[in-house]
Design a protein that fits this description.
This protein has about 210 residues and is of the alpha/beta class. The protein folds into two domains: about 80 residues, Methionine synthase domain (Methyltransferase, Methionine Synthase (B12-binding Domains), Chain A, domain 1, Orthogonal Bundle), CATH 1.10.1240.10; about 120 residues, Cobalamin-binding domain (Rossmann fold, 3-Layer(aba) Sandwich), CATH 3.40.50. Helix content is about 55%, strand content about 10%. The chain has a five-stranded parallel sheet, with helices on both faces. α7 links the parallel β3 and β4. α1 packs antiparallel against α2, α3 packs antiparallel against α4 and α4 packs parallel to α5. The longest helix has 24 residues. The radius of gyration is 17 Å and the shape is globular. It binds cobalamin.
Amino acid sequence: MDLNEIKTAVIQMDEKSTEKLVIEALEEKYNPLDILNNGLIPGMKAVGELFTRKEYFVPEILLASDAFYRGFNLLTPYLKKASYRKKDKVLICVVQGDIHDIGKNIVKVMIESAGFQVIDLGRDVPIDEIIKAVKTAKPQILALSSLMTTTMLQMGEIINRLEKENLRKNIKIIIGGAPLNQEFARKIKADGYGEDAAGAVDLIEKLIRE
Ligand code: B12
């Protein structure tokens, strides 16, 4: 089989085919990470482009993301098994006002599969809740996600709050999501920007070594 078939099934919002094809790919001994990176994620990316071109609307996006998750859930046990050694703690969430969590969930699984402990606060998370979790869980890394130009601005506020409460020195902050970039990370004094889930893991490994 060709992993493009999985991409097409996601684009066609076909949950059953996505599930069947992912099972087939696993049986054919495709690497689970390749199935994610070369099948499911390109499918969701293409759906994003169709949405931007106004060929797809919210209902189509939701059906496509159901298909995506049907495949993704089959892969997560394999991804997590990859290399399990408990390392440092990462707190991850999508900032307040933003319910886009598909990317965050992929990043979470990749970080977990790299052996880190992950605390996931979910999506649409208020600043106070993030600060409280940093105080109680004391993570080494805070990973923030935002998919909207309106909600990304909160990331700077979160960093300011951490500074004010004297919590900034003990934590590295990484950010990600489609509208962000390195320049924005520098501007808000985050420690790094990751373009995708693999980039997130590389970034964390690098920051922890520093
Ligand atoms: C899926 C989707 C939805 C779904 C969300 C379902 C869900 N549970 O997530 C639904 C239909 C609910 C939705 C709703 C809305 N959406 Co919407 N949505 C999208 C869409 C099409 C795809 C996003 C996605 O999942 N991409 C696939 C994943 C795999 O990619 P990703 O999220 O970028 O994540 C990767 C990287 O960015 C990175 N990453 C992500 N997070 C992090 C974090 C860290 C720390 C690191 C290192 C890396 C990292 O790694 C990930 C994996 O590789 C985008 C269009 C687009 N082109 O992005 C619009 C988009 C984000 N939505 C948009 C809007 C406006 C909305 C709505 C407000 C209303 C509307 N008019 O439809 C609502 C409400 C949103 C709200 N309050 O949050 C706009 C945002 C515009 C802006 N202001 O910036 C976009 C850009 C569409 C557009 N062109 O207008 N949406």
